[in-house]
Amino acid sequence: PRLKKSRLTDKTCPISFEQNVERYLDKASRDTNQTTGQQTEVNKTTFRKTSLTCNPSTWPFFSAGQGELDRIRKTLFSPTFNALDYSPDDLTILLGEIFIQLELDKDLKTSWATVQTLILSARAGMPNNLYHNWTHVADVVQKVFSLATASGLLAELCGKQRLALFLAALFHDIEHPGVTAGYLVSAQSRMAAWYKNDPGLLEKHHSIRAFELLICKDIPLLQHLPADDRVNLRSMVRDIILATDMARHAAILEQVETLLLWGGGGIEAIGDGKDAAAAVTAAA
């Protein structure tokens, strides 16, 4: 029988980078001191409800059929895997396969529909840039776990650290505008103004959007975790995403070389599991 075509289109959950910046700035404008007329600091611990969440019914079908999917599963942790060989729909499915192979749902007690919503929402948050797009995200997720496997890091991480690594790789470039932070600052963009021209403004934006999705009621991925575990997990995801700032790239590569040279034993030389996870994600 013919495979059903995916119902996931570029118009699924439409929301642009510019629209999100506008909404953040609108929130800032409303947060105005009524007595002095001057804008006050926005409470950065309170975020709007995300509008990126997608319906799991839009989950696509693998274009080449089940037999080919079974074969590709065996290469998902291989350094030779090439994300450019697959369509965005197929990459969406393969990220779900990575989630399953990592057994990330073991402690979460979550449904497959929730996992699908998570991955689809990450995809909906990626613009069609030439480089910072959904293919890039899938490539990074795969390379992260390829490096983590080859270095021995994956075997040393606990389940929650592996989950944080997956989530950080999945969201590390969400809503990327396709230009550098330096360009945004030089162009006096509204996004640069919002983050006060911080050199790491892109990573901050990605981490905030990741946080929004992880607390969104439409993606109850973490609902069965104890409150402290949820806080720690979100903190790990944030720190790993912030570590992808290219200003830290040279130091990060040295840490990854240490991991590859010493295997899991190299974690102590870097810091801890979170630091090692951040190094692998930034290098990927």
Task: Give an overview of the whole structure.
This protein has about 280 residues and is mainly alpha-helical. It has one domain: Catalytic domain of cyclic nucleotide phosphodiesterase 4b2b (Orthogonal Bundle), CATH 1.10.1300. Helix content is about 55%, strand content about 0%. It has 15 helices and no strands. The N terminus is likely disordered.
The biggest beta sheet is recorded as: none
In round numbers, the mean pLDDT is 78
Regions with little confidence, pLDDT below 50 for 5+ residues: 1-18, 24-50
Number of helices: 15
The named CATH superfamily: 3'5'-cyclic nucleotide phosphodiesterase, catalytic domain
Keyword list:
Catalytic domain of cyclic nucleotide phosphodiesterase 4b2b, mainly alpha, hydrolase, 284 residues, PDEase_catalytic_dom, metal-binding
Brief summary of the model shown:
The protein has 284 residues and is mainly alpha-helical.
Please write out the topology.
Elements: H1 17-30, H2 66-73, H3 88-101, H4 105-108, H5 112-124, H6 134-151, H7 153-156, H8 159-171, H9 181-186, H10 190-194, H11 201-215, H12 227-242, H13 249-262, H14 267-270, H15 273-283
